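Hi Y.,

Following your request, here is the sequence exactly as I used it, all 294 residues.
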Amino acid sequence: MKILVTGACGQLGNEMQLMAQQHTQYTWFFTDVASVADGAKVSPLDITDQAAIETFVQDHDIDVIVNCAAYTAVDKAETDEAKAHLLNAVAPGYLAEAIQRRGGQLIQISTDYVFDGTAHTPYTEDVPTCPASVYGRTKLEGERAVLAANPSAMIIRTAWLYSTFGNNFVKTMLRLGREKSELGVIFDQVGTPTYARDLAAVVMSAIGQGIQPGIYHFTDEGVTSWYDFTKAIHRLAGITTCHVRPLHTTEYPTPATRPHYSVLDKTKIKQTYGIEVPYWEDSLAACVRLLAVG
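Below is the corresponding structure, written out as tokens. Let me know if you'd prefer a different format.
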């Protein structure tokens, strides 16, 4: 099986590169935009160029595409909708069409932002979507484009992603915790932190057991707020000199509306693939330990 991973220099893409080292039974191709592709492990590929995608997929006889690429600057997307739409909605459709012509399958990574966050119980896959931001709306458009072009595709919605790679909330809170004596963090938005390595493992399970079409939810287990998440990060890292204050969302306005409640129900993916999902704080501890030695 020949697998193409796009967005290979991002958080999930980097974790997929690590996973690939343990799954040499597959032939792997890793791509990203030319500005970050290193030429050795990662090749340049513009996923907004339909002809380039078609050529790459055909020339390399790709069987599966894992699309880890996205426009993820949530606030910037509010004033850069054209680019967010191109990367989050149009490009996934191109990938889905290209792999459909090969008779292959696509795994598309999506987001909790397809919901408005006004629920009070975990979102199942059949709950009507209602995005409240440009980012959420363009990601939902991407889901629809993928399924329209390739009905055998798998959509995995996730949330609050972090890793040892790139820029993310965990790294930011570690840095600020060491730099500042006091820090305000929102307490009235709740969800589930997700270690990108856990998500990569689920993607590998899907590939190994057979990609089952449809929409799935995956995060780590449990529920927390950004405030409690920060407290856990500092505790696990041994940061004791920074006082973390809880903030209301209204005290920290942002251009994009964030979901107040974005807990995803993972029953479907757990039952389909027989997986046991790690508790969010256990995975966070593993990531913090790696960051400490790295």
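The first helix runs from residue 11 to 20.

Thanks again,
Q.
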